Amino acid sequence: MIIVMKAKAKKEELEEVVKKIEKLGYKPHIIQGVERSVIGAVGDERGKAKLQSLEVLSGVDKVVPILKPYKLASRDIKPEGTVVSIDGRVEIGGNKIVVISAAVPLSPGLLHTVFKA
Q: Does 58 fall in a domain?
């Protein structure tokens, strides 16, 4: 489940939502955006109805169910994109194309894992 905070939500309101998520047995994953913050609640899907109750808390804009497994990495959540720096020499995720190669052949299973990550 993803909890989208209001654009003007205060730090205290965000902290209160995080505490409630933890109290419900979920692990909060906070994403600080340019305009607003988003909190991913990671845990057992069977209790997601409890998370819907967070919508009434001060500072919460909406509670959105995760329909796709990659939702936290999607542009729906973080439209400005993410750039990951590798050892200060290579950036993955910007406007440049990055090619990754290996000295040994990769098995199809490992190749799938690399591209899935």
A: yes
What is the helix (H) or strand (E) element at residue 103, kind and residue range?
A: none
Cα(first)–Cα(last) distance of the chain, in Å?
Answer: 21
Spatial distance between the Cα atoms of 44 and 54, rounded to a whole number of angstroms: 16
Verify that 16 and 62 share a domain, yes or no.
Answer: yes
Range of the domain at 95: 84-116
**Residue 79 vs residues 36, 72, 91: alpha-carbon distances, Å:** 11, 11, 18
Structurally, the chain folds into a number of domains equal to 2
> How many Å apart are CA 95 and CA 55, to the nearest integer?
36
Q: Are residues 12 and 37 in the same domain?
A: yes
pLDDT tens-digit series, residues 34-90: 888 999 998 877 777 888 889 999 999 999 887 666 666 667 667 777 788 888 888
CA distance 12 to 69: 29
Q: What dihedral do alpha carbons 18, 19, 25, 30 form, nearest 10°? A: 20
